[in-house]
């Protein structure tokens, strides 16, 4: 299986990963951290999908999609932190004044998990942010006891319904390093702020078109 990661510019493909089975259902559509809470609460049912459709027509795209052939199998939300609720968070600190991008949601469709797609999504989101000129990218995964080289490969299980933030070891594998602790807790696990500096490009690193 070869996974390709592309900008999320096709709404139908985003809907295949994020959308509800019933068009009238109220699901997140990955808007909770992207838009002000008041607007997020006002958008109901089909209006949420319409809002995401508008985002997909804008540049840059609201994130990236992973494809297995022509089938969309995963999603990652990535955007300038200043355009998200993380810019105003009381629980997740700002490390510095660098205009970083945030990577806050990684989702793989049921039936396609445990195939390395989340790793491809993280790498694709990094390259997408790099292509847009981001100086650094942050993520806010849960630390479930898997701390990379010194923490072993195990860790407490994270509820799949709350696993959208990702887990620390997957970001460490992608080159992110721990930048700060947070007071945010998700599914009973503390979240940490992970940072990857993009200002020094590695030779041979590709870019998303």
Descriptive account of the structure:
Strand 6 and strand 7 (189-197) form a beta hairpin. A seven-stranded mixed β-sheet has the order 1-2-3-4-5-7-6, sandwiched between helices. It is an alpha+beta fold and 209 residues long. The chain is 22% helix and 25% strand. The protein has five helices and seven strands, in the order E-H-H-H-E-E-E-H-E-H-E-E. Helix 1 packs across helix 3 (46-57). The protein is globular. The model is unreliable at 146-154 and 202-209 (pLDDT under 50). The protein has helices at residues 11-18, 37-42, 46-57, 117-131, 168-173; strands at 3-7, 63-68, 71-80, 101-108, 136-139, 177-186, 189-197. The longest helix has 15 residues, at 117-131.
Number of helices: 5
> What is the radius of gyration?
16 Å
Low-confidence segments, given as residue ranges, are 146-154, 202-209
H and E order? EHHHEEEHEHEE
> Quick one: biggest sheet?
7 strands, mixed
**Share of helix, binned:** 10-25%
Summarize the entry for a quick read.
It is built from five helices and seven strands, in the order E-H-H-H-E-E-E-H-E-H-E-E. The chain is an alpha+beta fold and 209 residues long. A seven-stranded mixed beta sheet has the order 1-2-3-4-5-7-6, with helices on both faces.
Task: Give a topology summary.
Blueprint: E1 3-7, H1 11-18, H2 37-42, H3 46-57, E2 63-68, E3 71-80, E4 101-108, H4 117-131, E5 136-139, H5 168-173, E6 177-186, E7 189-197
Parallel strand pairs: 4-5
Antiparallel strand pairs: 1-2, 2-3, 3-4, 5-7, 6-7
Helix pairs in contact: 1-3
């Amino acid at each position: 299986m070869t996974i390709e990661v592309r900008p999320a510019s096709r709404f139908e493909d985003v809907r295949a990963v994020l959308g509800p089975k019933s068009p009238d259902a109220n699901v997140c559509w990955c808007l909770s951290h992207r838009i002000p809470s008041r607007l997020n609460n006002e958008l109901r049912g089909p209006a949420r999908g319409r809002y995401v459709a508008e985002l997909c027509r804008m540049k840059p795209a609201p994130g990236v999609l992973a494809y297995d052939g022509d089938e969309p199998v995963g999603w990652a939300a990535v955007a300038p932190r200043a355009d998200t609720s993380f810019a105003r968070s009381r629980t997740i600190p700002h490390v510095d004044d660098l205009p970083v991008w945030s990577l806050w949601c990684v989702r793989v469709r049921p039936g396609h998990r445990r195939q390395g797609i989340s790793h491809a999504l993280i790498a694709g989101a990094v390259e997408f942010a790099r292509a847009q000129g981001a100086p650094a990218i942050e993520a806010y995964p849960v630390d479930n006891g898997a701390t990379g080289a010194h923490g072993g490969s195990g860790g407490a299980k994270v509820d799949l319904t709350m696993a959208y933030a990702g887990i620390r070891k997957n970001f460490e594998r992608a080159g992110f390093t721990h930048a700060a602790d947070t007071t945010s807790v998700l599914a009973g696990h503390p979240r940490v702020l992970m940072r990857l500096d993009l200002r020094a490009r590695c030779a041979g690193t590709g870019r998303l078109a």
